[in-house]
Known about the structure:
Elements: E1 2-6, H1 16-29, E2 34-38, E3 45-47, E4 55-57, H2 61-71, E5 75-78, H3 83-94, E6 100-102, H4 107-112, H5 119-131, E7 135-138, H6 141-149, E8 155-157, E9 181-185, H7 194-198, E10 205-209, H8 215-221, E11 226-229, H9 233-241, E12 245-248, H10 257-264, E13 269-271, H11 277-280, E14 287-289, H12 293-300, H13 305-312, H14 317-348
Parallel strand pairs: 1-2, 1-5, 5-6, 6-7, 7-8, 9-10, 9-12, 10-11, 12-13, 13-14
Antiparallel strand pairs: 3-4
Helix pairs in contact: 1-14, 10-13
Amino acid sequence: MRVLIATDAWHPQVNGVVRTLTSLARAAKGLGVDIEFLSPEGFPSLPLPTYPGLRLALPSRRQIAERIGQVKPDAIHIATEGTIGLWTRAYCLRHRVPFTTSYTTRFPEYISARWPIPESAVYAALRRFHAAASVTMVATASLRADLASRGFANLGMWTRGVDTELFRPNRAIELPFPRPIFACVGRVAVEKNLEAFLSLDLPGTKMVIGDGPALNVLKSRFPNAKFMGLIENGKLAAHLAAADVFVFPSLTDTFGVVQLEALASGVPIAAFPVTGPKDVVANNPIGALNEDLREACLAALNVSREACRNFALGYSWENSARQFIGNLQDINAARRARAAQIGAAAAAHG
């Protein structure tokens, strides 16, 4: 089976969507499924003023059609709602090709944090975008329920995984900071709600790993915090495992793969009780959720690191890939059944 995933988020970006897609492709290969990507690579682009260093791909309809024709996929999945996602969706509708989508970013809340655009208007646009998909995949049960309540249909589950070999407790390095160390990992941008974390009165050290448009502003406002910049792979795993608590202050993430990476490193989670954290932590003894983020941080210090690691061992990218592939296979099976019905009806009237 050959699958083409259309995505506007791609390397050199470092975020949960990119990590999820590359991990999915690696795991799917072991299951006999080849995943190729229709990414921004090779297309003209424009810089994004809101995100220095990132660019908006500007493909043409013909270029998208050519890329799809070169791959000749058995299934098409649209991972993002950007320009590449929009043009791929248009191609599929024009050629009557079934496709799936995934809802990975809360764009209504994300956009409203920057511009005076009503969330309801953005949700309406996203609802139209995803309505044409055979299945819209979501990572958590609470997100599925939330989108269903907003009129989204054909919702299916696609959970996430973690590389437990890369992220593990024994990778921890000794950091020259007062303990306890409260760590936050991710893009340093307004929608990540980092101010809620950095403004807390906590003992020890606040450590932020990541880069983004809000970095310089936050550095100047919170000079006592340790801003480590963008680090990846083994170095990231080593710093993450060295923390005492992983703080996830975002109110808009749909999952947060980094939560699983922290748990695999033996680090408990402190977060608000919102979509993502409440699906991962729930009633499991792996962290603390509280509307008072400071209370959650302090409570997480008493959580067993062994329990965190054991929980993460149950999340593999192979299981995630199986779920993703299963959604595609269900669609292909339904399509074949429908074609057989049409063929049988035509033969009966012939």
